[in-house]
User: What shape does this take?
Amino acid sequence: MLCVLTGRGFAGYSENRMATMEITDAVFDEKVLKSTIPVLVDFWAPWCGPCRMAGPVLDELAEEYEGKIQIVKLNIDENQKSAADYDVMSIPTTVLIKDGNEIGRQIGFAGKKVFEDLIKKGI
Amino acid sequence: MDEKQKIEFAQKPKNFTEPWDVAVIGSGPASLTAAIYTTRGAASTLILGGEKWGGQLMLTTEVDNYPGFHEGIEGPDLMQKMRKQSERFGAEFIEKNVEAVDFSKEYFELTVGETKYLAKSVIIATGAETKWLGVPGEDRLRGRGVSSCAPCDAPFFKDKDTAVIGGGDSAMEEALVLTKYSNSITIVHRREEFRASAAMQKKVKDNKKIKVIWDTQVKEFVGEQKLEKILLENTKTGEKSELVVDGVFVAVGHTPSTAIFKGKVELDEKGYIVVNDHTKTSTDGVFVAGDVHDYHYRQAITAAGFGCMAGMEALKYLDEKQGNKKQETTLDK
Assistant: This one.
């Protein structure tokens, strides 16, 4: 499992071992669309408060559902193409993708259970 | 990063049958300031901060009116610092929502999922949340062009046309944030003047990208997949018009977050908690601080001030209760 520190703003979270993966536009096709398991893409940015609330929750879920679902984070400041491809107009937006197709979406952070319900649509 | 050493003054409950000295509900400036004071006053303190923690400042960018940060500070950074400060003195922070409260028992009961937390005193600091317009299309197009958080969503409207609904400080801030990205910003306000502070109004008036439509309210948000336009009506003449925009930011005020307190403490007709003697609710031992009772000032710094007051009163209440208990024990003998 590839573990990448996301470096998301706050000290205290970054030392955690994370099952989430930071990706870019360049690898979107390979890591998301061609993934053998469903992928939850978190479109986020460091200056967005609700994204900062959602980040650690997604890290937790990534560990809990490791192997069943891959959670990836895409910084929309640096990766505008994917955000535009998916018509993201608000962050955080999380999109669930299975076999290359979008099967669910959550706009905004509404707590862990809402993410969990979204994940369950894919597994 | 260098972390200041943790200093804890109070023993926390060992299990769920033991009460916390203080339970604070909420996690904005009022809540976290209260917890800084109660922990430093040697009261074990539980913060039930909610899943969406940090309060309204989590939805802002730069805060320039919080003393001590002379160059401004990002709202989410300020909240993270306050949280760390409360945790440094031993506050236990739980990122979960309180679903129900029972203030009728000796130890107040706070229900979080399957768990019931007990507390000798409670500070309600649940704040307020964004008010929506409640007109057709608004809910369906949220996140598809309708937003209440310009700092979050403004970059998606680069070189596009946007509108802001409202006339207070938060509407001005939304408009100013948008000027960094949008082509044009139209503020739609239902009255003929803003209630925003003079400083904010000046910033808005000085900005050439912003124009204002007065005396006008939104009747409908229109769009299939994305917002395409809004339908407007003049509040004086009834004249109808439409405005073609890619994004609309709603900033028409806030409603207090008091749903779980209905019938538990006295609320006013708008749902705010009725406050007596600065910090007290209608229930002895239950205190209140911040935007959940204060509809007048509604600032980060005043919320923090109210939090401090509630924290100090909760400590005094615990002391007095402790005193009475000792007296009772002596009398029993």
Summary: The radius of gyration of chain B is 22 Å.
